[in-house]
Amino acid sequence: MGYNLYMRPGAGKFIVFEGIDGSGKTTISKLFFKYLKNKNINTSWFREPSDSKWGKKIRELADEMDSIPIDEEFKYFLKDRKWDVENNLRPSLKNGDIVILDRYYFSSACYQGARGMDVEMIISENRKFSPEPDLLFLIDVDIPTAMNRIRNSRDVEAKLFEKESFLLKVRKNYLDLKYDFIKVIDGKESIDNVLGSVIEEFEQFFLP
Ligand code: TMP
44 lies in which domain range? Predict the structure, then answer.
């Protein structure tokens, strides 16, 4: 995929974290953010769904997502992302920050894709307004590991079986993505090791 300068007006760097539920990507992205802050690097951390009115609606509806038609669900994520790009991502990139984002349109591609939408269509709709990442860390874990972490950390007794087969599809969609900026990181390792791999890749990519 070509690098589109028009899409990247600022001088900042854009780093996305993706992975299935239970992959640990939020923990790792926050630790990476702290690591950069400690080095006095201008850094911002955001997540999607964002804090827009659409993002809030998505979080409110989280347990009922199955009852919403898929094209409606997709539109909520798209509207939320437009807001995030305009209000958070582009301004911070323009400011020269290293922008860290926990989930991006690859989540739409893989999750809404797993609910039956066309993955390529999802990506092309999003690319109309979304800047491309410089680097995307796909924190990958197998399904039993993810399910164990979900069972231990959240109160989600119901629907676990459904969740397991759904996440299997989501993970496959993630591993099928083919972009040069994607680095797959083994998320089964200890937090320290996963963070270490992220930092190593980051330094190889950005430091001279
Ligand atoms: P989180 O657990 O990382 O906060 O993500 C919330 C849920 O939203 C997670 O199950 C993935 C889902 N999601 C989508 O289905 N599509 C999207 O575009 C995004 C950003 C999240």
Answer: 3-206
- Any atom of ligand 1 within 6 Å of the Cβ of 111: yes
The torsion angles phi and psi of 2, rounded to 5 degrees, stand at: -75, 155
What pairing do the DSSP bridges indicate for beta strands 98-102 and 135-140?
unpaired
Please report the pLDDT score of residue 155 as a whole number: 58
Residue 10 is predicted with a pLDDT of 54
Structural domains in the chain (count): 1
Closest ligand 1 atom to Cα of 108 = 18
Q: Which of 13, 11, 26 is nearest to 139 (CA)?
A: 26
CATH number assigned to the domain comprising residue 152: 3.40.50.300
Q: Whose CA is nearest to atom 18 of ligand 1?
A: 108
Q: What number does the ligand 1 atom closest to the CA of 58 have? A: 8
For residue 52, how far is its CA from the centre of ligand 1 (angstroms)? 14
Radius of gyration of the chain (CA): 17
pLDDT at 6: 35
Question: In which residue ranges of the chain is pLDDT below 50?
Answer: 1-9
